[in-house]
Amino acid sequence: MYHYTASGLDNVFLKNGYSIKETPSGQTTSIKNIDGLHKIIARDLVTHEYPLTGKEFCFLRIELNLSQKALGTLFEKSDQAIALWEKGTSKIPALADKAIRDLYMESIGESHIANLLERFSQVDRRVCELELRLEETENGWEVLETA
Predict the structure, then answer these.
(1) 7 pLDDT tier (thresholds 50, 70, 90)
(2) pLDDT tens digits for 42-65?
(3) How far are the Cα atoms of 53, 68, 101 from residue 84, in angstroms, in the given order?
(4) 34-110, what's its fold?
(5) Taking burial as the number of CB atoms within 10 A of a residue's CB, which of 90, 103, 127, 135 is the most buried?
(6) Where are the domains of the chain?
(7) 90 has a pLDDT exceeding 60
(8) H or E element: which one contains 83?
(9) How much of the chain is in helix, strand and coil states, percent to nearest 5?
(10) Is the dihedral of CA 46, 49, 54, 56 positive or negative?
(11) Could you tell me if 77 and 67 are in contact, meaning their C-beta atoms sit under 8 angstroms apart?
């Protein structure tokens, strides 16, 4: 197993999909389909239920191609606050943890938010298609029936 540390994560081991070559300046490792590797790592991170570690949070931020400053602006935090989360010096707020997971899923087109909005849209359509039969009474308008 190859201990893949270039991701910034300490717990990634590859069974295959890599090659090690000897060069005049030492060993080099080549990863086949590194984009696919990073995508599967990120998908695993966003789907597990335990809170993200600082390194995992950092990995997702980098996969989103966001700087600490840009992410800080998005979360209304300083880039220093983001750096402290990523170093593990400060606890990542639950809302930030959830938000970065959702942002990643949105970035690959598999957003839970998009699915939720689609479900709301379907419900909204059904409600709008209902026929309301109303009657004006002495007490104001009343619903006779919904069809």
Answers:
(1) very high
(2) 999 999 989 999 999 999 999 999
(3) 11, 10, 18
(4) Putative cytoplasmic protein (1.10.3100)
(5) 103
(6) 34-110
(7) yes
(8) helix 79-87
(9) 50, 20, 30
(10) negative
(11) no
pLDDT at 51: 95
The first and second tokens of residue 10, run together, are 């300490």
Distance CA 114, CA 118 (A): 6
- Taking all residues of the chain, what is their mean pLDDT, rounded to a whole number? 87
CA 141 to each of CA 88, 116, 128, 145: distance values in angstroms, whole numbers, following the listed order: 60, 34, 19, 12
DSSP result, 8-43: S-SS-EESSSEEEEEETTEEEEEETTHHHHHHHHHH
Q: What angle do CA 47, 80, 91 make, to 5 degrees?
A: 45
Any idea which of 8-12, 93-97, 113-117 has the lowest mean pLDDT?
113-117
Report the distance separating Cα 37 and Cα 111, nearest Å.
20
